[in-house]
Design goal:
The protein contains nine helices and 20 strands. It is of the alpha+beta class. The longest helix is centred in the middle third of the chain and has 18 residues.
């Protein structure tokens, strides 16, 4: 196992700042995921750790030893790429053995370790096949086996599942997580898929604009987002504009005011966020403290396990609820009156702006 320390990393391409003073400690044995939209800096950071890019300033260490001036092939990291990056002209076994041969391992050691790792990724019977004879998922397993067979201190993975179909992605991410846990290998994983990040990770690091917005356990990221960007990028959310009044914070159309634990001037602008799954639709049992909003149905979608009900508030803002299917909900049509209700403690307040800070 190996801890990774990243200290004040900066990387620019001309006038474009890809990474802005990135500092983060990655515990030994953790599954650490870099999550964010395209262009946020996550892949640049991963490739800087790998040694494919050289940072402008700052340092990177593994097990307390600086690697910033160590060539990529000597950093003792394994890399799994999005496009598999396996050699098409040699067999599965030779692909897996490539790194060991480069390190001049003995023939018996190569055979033993290759066989062991192929069994681990469920490819033991495919050793003699050529890459073109494998499915996409199997080819990605070859890439994983090749990265793991050298026993790297750190495993780096750059969106390795993005080229696979939805069901295979779910199956393979379970396998990846099981392998990572069984080997207890420090893993840094890049994805833009929020569900993938939440399902696999010990720590999720959300990035935007070359800056770490929040790094925490998946539960914390989802339930206690540090700012509006994290709240909007990780999971669905409704954002409603509101402001401070004498009574507190009132959402558009609601008579229930939220208390605010800070002394702020009346008229101060806020953005209130409420998760769609926290909203009940036409609930006659909502308590007296519940916030209730009247709206007009815009669209109802049945997705199997749940219903998505999108509606328009009198203010013109859109709000969406995710609820369990029922005959009454299925029967809703556009322009029908609908009542949304939710407990006040489920509402989170943020300052305006893309990365507006969390207030409560």
């Amino acid at each position: 196992m190996a801890a990774v320390e990243i200290s004040n990393i900066k990387k620019s391409y001309g006038d474009v700042v890809a990474l802005s003073q990135i500092s983060i400690s990655i515990p030994s044995g953790a599954f650490f995921t870099l999550l964010g939209p395209s262009g946020c800096g996550k892949t640049t950071l991963l490739r800087t750790i790998a040694g494919f890019h050289q940072q402008d300033s700052g340092g990177i260490s593994i097990e307390g030893k600086s690697i910033e001036h160590v060539p990529a092939h000597k950093r003792d990291v394994g890399m799994v790429f999005q496009d598999y990056a396996i050699f098409p002209h040699i067999s599965v076994a030779d692909n897996v053995a490539f790194g060991l041969k480069q390190r001049k391992a003995g023939a018996s050691e190569i055979a033993e370790r290759s066989e062991k790792i192929l069994k681990m990724v469920q490819l033991g019977e495919y050793a003699k096949r050529m890459p073109h004879e494998l499915s996409g998922g199997q080819q990605q397993r070859v890439g994983l086996a090749r990265a793991l067979v050298i026993n790297p201190k750190v495993l780096l993975m750059d969106e390795p599942l993005s080229n696979l179909d939805a069901k295979l992605r779910v199956d393979l991410r379970r396998e990846l997580r099981e392998i990572q846990q069984s080997m207890v290998i420090t893993t840094i994983y890049v994805t833009h898929d929020q569900e993938e990040a939440l399902a696999m990770s010990d720590i999720v690091c959300v990035m935007y604009g070359g800056i770490i917005q929040q790094a925490a356990a998946p539960w914390e990221i989802y339930n206690n987002p540090a700012n509006r960007f994290v709240a909007s990028f990780v999971g669905a959310n409704n954002f409603l504009n509101t402001e401070k009044t004498d009574a507190g914070i009132s959402l558009p159309g609601s008579s229930v005011a939220l208390p605010l634990g800070q002394k702020l001037a009346n008229g101060t602008k806020f953005v209130a966020a409420i998760r769609p799954e926290d909203i009940a639709v036409n609930d006659n049992n909502a308590g007296p403290d519940a916030i209730t909003l009247e709206a007009k149905v815009r669209q109802v979608n049945f997705t199997g396990r749940e219903m998505n009900v999108a509606a328009i508030l009198p203010s013109g803002e859109e709000i969406e609820a995710i609820t369990h299917p029922s005959e009454a909900i299925v029967a809703l049509k556009p322009q029908d009156d609908v009542r949304f209700s939710f407990p006040p403690h489920k509402v989170k307040l943020f300052e305006p702006g893309v990365t507006g800070a969390r207030l409560q």
